Amino acid sequence: MIFKTIQKVIRHSVLCHPIICRPNRLLSASLSSPVHQTIFKNLFSTMSYYIEERGSPNTLDYKVYIKNENGVVSPFHDIPLLADTSGKVFNMVVEIPRWTNAKMEINTKAALNPIIQDTKKGKLRFVPNVFPHKGYIWNYGAFPQTWENPEVLDEHTGCKGDNDPLDVLEIGYKVAKRGEILKVKVLGTVALIDEGETDWKVLVINVDDPIAPEVNDIKDIEKHFPGLLKATVEWLKIYKIPDGKPENKFAFNGEPKNAEFALKIISDAHEYWKGLVQKENSEELSCVNTTLNNTASIGNDKVQAILSESLPFSEPSPLLPEVDKWHFIKL
Fold this sequence. Notes:
Elements: E1 12-16, E2 45-54, E3 63-68, E4 71-73, E5 90-96, E6 104-106, E7 115-117, E8 119-120, E9 123-124, E10 129-130, E11 139-142, E12 167-170, E13 181-194, E14 197-206, H1 218-224, H2 228-238, E15 249-250, H3 259-277, H4 300-308, E16 326-327
Parallel strand pairs: 10-16, 12-14
Antiparallel strand pairs: 1-2, 2-3, 3-4, 5-11, 5-13, 6-7, 8-9, 11-12, 13-14, 13-15
InterPro entries: Pyrophosphatase, Pyrophosphatase_sf
GO cellular component, one term: cytoplasm
EC number: 3.6.1.1
């Protein structure tokens, strides 16, 4: 069987479209926000997602595939952006749990887009610990079915998109698991300019967090999480300095924008994604999927062939002690 080498399974319930996204059905006009009305509505059924790990963690061979009860799915293309029919709850793919350092990301270039560890000059990337921040200070991940278009000049930043799904920073109290799919609501966004590219960071909270009912917009973050917005901007500004790079820049002088603004950014990125998957040739990016019923969709035989190219799961390789090193930067 395809998945008999699964070594570890993470289960959690989300709402997922079972077959195909239908881009011709708009959200109901009863939604109060005009931005919500521009994000397309899917049909949903209850579905659980799991992970299948391949290779050894902390090595170049390590991959995390996402699957549901029907088999492997692409976290870039198959998991719906919306988590329910309200249009206000979104699916988030967790790439990096809070307090960890491994720079994990959806591999947009590989078929079925497994989560892998980013590399630099052939070596695995770990985010430095810049005092007082240990690793990532949020659960970090991405919105499925979004894409920051590298061919379009962003009107807010004056820079083109970074060619990736939208990044998401989840601020709830639980430390999430790699590959977990969280249901989140949008609170705001920060416009990072990373090496000349637009790289929006969308702030969200897990809808199951006990404080979530009280946190609905950017102003609520400062009220209930005092200091977190300031720390977020600082972290994004300085995290590459230990690697010899300059401070990152921001649009709006680093001022976070509110939820309504962020929803417009998400809507635009979803529209860009829809254009991407409709292309005959997406160049470097893989649009291979198992649910969209388009020219890039594949069946079980091809899924098995892709998985067979990966090594079986094995125990993690030990981390180098340098991963825990503190870096001190004077701003």
